[in-house]
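Design review, sub-item: ligand-bound model
Attendees: FS, YL, KQ
YL presented the inputs for the inosinic acid complex:
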Amino acid sequence: MTPMQEDLDRVLFDEPTILRRLDELARDITAEYEGRELTVIAVLNGSFIFMADLLRRIPLPLRLDCLSVASYYGEAATTGEVVFKQIALPDVARRHILILDDILDSGLTLAAICDKLKTERPLSVKICVLLRKLKPRLRPVDADHVGFNIGDEFVVGYGLDYMERYRNLPCIGVLREDKLVQAHQA
Ligand code: IMP
Ligand code: MG
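KQ shared the predicted structure:
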């Protein structure tokens, strides 16, 4: 076991399981957007591995833009504020937009992104997340495409971080409770 894996309470999804699910997601998305020009907007940093693996499975001509937002500030609880880290937003007017994000948790991030993009008059806006936590949202937002539903636990790996660590873990797992505390005190 690697040192990062030792910090997990348990693995939820190993790499082959994730990739098998991405095959299915990619098939659904390809069928949905066949014949239309798709613009994907990936929310960094958390979605970078998900984006790379999913988009290579979609054989459609598409445009890619990335957005960078911060809503967690290294904490394991949301601050309630969403900050857009770039001044210029991607060009979304008259385009079919698919937003890709790592996880739907409180919903604040995706609700804020949808609000912002919709002011630019896209033709359509849909959301695809790798993970959706089954819990009440702080804002009413749901995803149109979901990799996996999970419980209300703090997970890391496959792009998801805790204080910028664990993003490069190939699987998705629940972080050990004592690691959350330790990192807070560090
Ligand atoms: P929101 O609470 O839905 O706005 O989610 C905001 C962001 O918090 C997500 O895009 C993730 O980057 C991060 N986040 C939420 N839950 C988790 C988790 O369990 N592990 C790691 N990051 C998380
Ligand atoms: Mg994060």
